[in-house]
């Protein structure tokens, strides 16, 4: 009898383990970009390690809506995961706004050190409190300004230009301080908005600009590099709590150990992207130190304003960043 019970138990366990768990991951990043390529690597690894029992399905290019829509679907458990910029995530995890204060970091190396070695655990807890499981940092990179009407060298050149902005407190505050009345528009709607004149410019990285084909609607691109924008891969906590330990281990994989290779992939092609912009008849401009100083002066005023307005643990995070920067060096 005990042998029979054992056989039944093993058969039942086999049936349970054979069930396929489907994980839908969404991103606004276009197909073929380094971000979707990274998700493809994750998909392949998970499919292999789970023996096909966990199936990853990636929805790139804003198929599931803009970033804010994707984020809400992940929190509700309708989507199991996503790759999202800090700017979008900051609408729910307000302390992330601090990371996007203009000219906060002096270099990629400094940003990496602060995020990986000093802030990871703080944000892991903040993510979970809002219904998200943090997997790894990723990045969009340094944002600059693309325009279709005139070249931007200083903040004065932005007067009267309708700029598409990311809908987050720090972005809104910075553009307002620059004298720009920004217009928040979801990623999938930016290109038609540029084409029809709803907006005349935007800020984003050269890579994202080309991946989304926004360069087809602009004539100028100014390398202000005013905001370093991290991103993150996250899972839905509601979904996560339905998994067993083995499934969690497979889905978590290397965790933030994925960050270095993902960053390398994004950074390695920046020069090529700038060259590609030029080949597309976009005038690329590198502002001088004196021209950048006016952008940076505005940023200094925004920092205190944003930190005090956000509340929560923002002041603690900001102070921790300043201390970490000193330890990490330039």
* Rg computed from alpha carbons, rounded to a whole number of angstroms: 22 Å
Give the uncertain stretches in residue-range form.
1-17
Q: Look at the structure and give the mean pLDDT.
A: 91
Spatial gap, N to C terminus: 70 Å
Question: Which H/E pattern describes the elements?
Answer: HEHEHEHHEEHEHEHEHHHHEHH
| Percent range for β-strand residues | 15-25%
Descriptive overview:
By secondary structure, the protein is α/β, with parallel strands linked by helices. Helix content is 49%, strand content 19%. The chain is built from 14 helices and nine strands. Strands 1, 2, 3, 4, 5, 6, 7, 8 and 9 form a nine-stranded mixed β-sheet that branches. Helix 5 packs antiparallel against helix 14 and helix 6 (169-177) crosses helix 13 (289-310). The longest helix is centred in the middle third of the chain and has 22 residues, at 108-129. The model is unreliable at 1-17 (pLDDT under 50).
């Amino acid at each position: 009898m005990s042998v029979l019970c054992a056989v039944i138990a093993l058969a039942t366990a086999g049936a349970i383990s054979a069930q396929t768990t489907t994980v839908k991951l969404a991103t606004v990043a276009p197909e073929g970009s380094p971000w979707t390529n990274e998700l493809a690597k994750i998909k392949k690894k998970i499919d292999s390690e789970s023996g096909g029992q966990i199936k990853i399905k990636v929805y790139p290019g804003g198929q599931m809506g803009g970033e804010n829509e994707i984020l809400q679907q992940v929190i509700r458990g309708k989507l199991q995961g996503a790759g999202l910029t800090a700017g979008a995530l900051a609408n729910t995890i307000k302390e992330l706004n601090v990371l996007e204060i203009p000219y906060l970091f002096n270099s990629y190396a400094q940003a990496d050190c602060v995020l990986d070695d000093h802030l990871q655990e703080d944000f892991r807890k903040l993510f979970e409190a809002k219904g998200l499981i943090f997997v790894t940092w990723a990045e969009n990179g340094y944002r600059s300004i693309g325009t279709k009407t005139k070249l931007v060298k200083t903040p004065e050149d932005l007067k009267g230009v309708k700029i598409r902005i990311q809908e987050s407190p720090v972005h809104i505050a910075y553009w307002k301080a620059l004298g720009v009345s920004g217009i928040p528009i979801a990623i999938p709607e930016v290109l038609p908005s540029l084409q029809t004149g709803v907006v005349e410019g935007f800020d984003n990285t050269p890579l994202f600009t080309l991946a989304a084909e926004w360069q087809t609607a602009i004539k100028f691109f100014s390398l202000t590099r005013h905001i370093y924008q991290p991103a993150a891969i996250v899972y839905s906590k509601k979904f996560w709590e339905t998994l067993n330990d083995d499934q969690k281990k497979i889905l978590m994989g290397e965790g933030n150990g994925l960050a270095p290779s993902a960053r390398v992939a994004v950074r390695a092609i920046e020069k090529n992207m700038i060259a590609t912009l030029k080949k597309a008849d976009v005038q690329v401009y590198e502002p001088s130190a004196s021209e950048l100083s006016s952008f940076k002066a505005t940023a200094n005023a925004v920092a205190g304003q944003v930190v005090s307005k956000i509340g929560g643990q923002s002041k603690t995070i900001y102070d921790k960043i300043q201390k970490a920067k000193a330890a990490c060096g330039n």
